[in-house]
Amino acid sequence: MMEFDHVLRIIGEFGSYQKRLYILVNLAIIPAAFQMLMNIFIAREPQWSCSGLNSTQTCPTEGQPCETIRYTSSYTSIASEWNLICGDAYKVELSQSIFMIGALVGGLVLGMFADKYGRRPSWCISYILMVLGGVATAFSPSLNILYISRLVAGIGTGGALLSGFVLVTELIGPSYRGITGALSSCFFTFGQMLLPAFAYFLQDWRKLSFILSLVGVIFTFFIRLQRVLNAAARVVCLIPKFDHITPVLIGLHWLPVRYRVIFKILLLVYKALHANAPPYISDLLTPKHIGCYSLRSNEQYLLIVPKTMRKTFGDRAFAKAGPFLWNELSADIREASTVETFKSRLKTFLFKKAFYL
């Protein structure tokens, strides 16, 4: 981790990409807070009375049977849906216990999955499970299906909270990691503050569960960083929502997110080739062997592109992506004498490529 922290100090500890990623992933904590505490409202015990008994909220006995149960509260819950009162009251709290068991399993299983396959795949899978479990809760036809839905939602919530926190904090430099990690809990608290407002206006437990899960569904459509960049450009230039954004980005000279990532990779390659990067980064780059023949390619500072077994994960590794992108640059960019000159030429090249100029 210390070596990676050194890389972050070189390329930037808390740049624009890290800030956007931090805000986006932490916004997803708000639906996770909804799922974590939703049981307080969907499982609350309503006011009820039993015909044949004089007092309300009094459980029947063998000598005083209850013919019918009448609920007088304005809201509904799983307790009123399946008459989970008196001897069956424990089944209400059982739903939250099952959810927390799922959160424990999700944190363990999806945490190990994140270590092996990456934080982002683990976070995406967790978030999908959380949303699906929440939606299934709203449409549960029986109590057993409700328990299964809460278990799935718990697995997703546990994995999403863990993977999301690690995803944002490990990509932030050590100078900012402490304060940003502490501030992540504010998003969860904000979700706790919003939940009672939803519960106040949505008195039916099925509608409440569905709408709270729908918040997560809506959020998945805005997860792309490019949308955030476009929105920021509209705010800066006061552009209406439905106007074309490409001329605005060109006017601001902002690179799209995809090309911004390429810019960062190539900048790290340049620094590694000029002994301004840690040795473990430089060791991943191998210049092409200069043969005995006088070829023009011998003077172009090309790198060997290693072969990979997987296109999805292997091609995204720095050892493969760095040399591949480097060899696509023109010679005048690769031969830049200073970092500032390289950055200027590279940004111009990527800018023209991104907007077909």
Descriptors:
single chain, 357 residues, mainly alpha, Growth Hormone, Chain: A, two-stranded antiparallel sheet
Can you walk me through this structure?
26% of the residues are buried. It contains 17 helices and two strands. By secondary structure, the chain is mainly alpha-helical. The radius of gyration is 28 Å and the shape is elongated. The protein has helices at residues 2-11, 16-27, 29-37, 39-42, 78-81, 90-117, 119-138, 143-169, 174-201, 205-220, 225-237, 246-252, 257-273, 279-282, 318-327, 331-334, 339-355; strands at 48-50, 69-71. It has two domains: 4-52 and 68-223, MFS general substrate transporter like domains (Growth Hormone, Chain: A), CATH 1.20.1250; 257-356, no CATH class. Strands 1-2 form a two-stranded antiparallel ribbon.
Q: Quick one: CATH superfamily of the largest domain?
A: MFS general substrate transporter like domains
Major sheet description? 2 strands, antiparallel
The geometry reads as elongated
The H-and-E topology, N to C, reads as HHHHEEHHHHHHHHHHHHH
Broad structural category: mainly alpha
Tally of distinct domains: 2
**Radius of gyration, taken over Cα atoms and rounded to an integer in Å:** 28 Å
Terminal CA distance: 41 Å
What is the annotated CATH architecture of the largest domain?
Up-down Bundle
Total beta-strand segments: 2
Q: How helical, in percent, are the residues?
A: 55-70%
Kindly state the mean pLDDT as a whole number?
83
Q: Please report the first level of CATH classification, the CATH class of the largest domain.
A: Mainly Alpha
The CATH topology assignment of the largest domain is Growth Hormone, Chain: A
The main sheet orders its strands as 1-2
- What is the overall number of helices? 17
> Residue ranges: pLDDT <50 for 5 or more in a row?
293-298
How much of the sequence lies in strands comes to: under 5%
Subcellular location: Membrane
Protein name: Solute carrier family 22 member 15-like
GO cellular component, one term: membrane
Pfam families: MFS_1
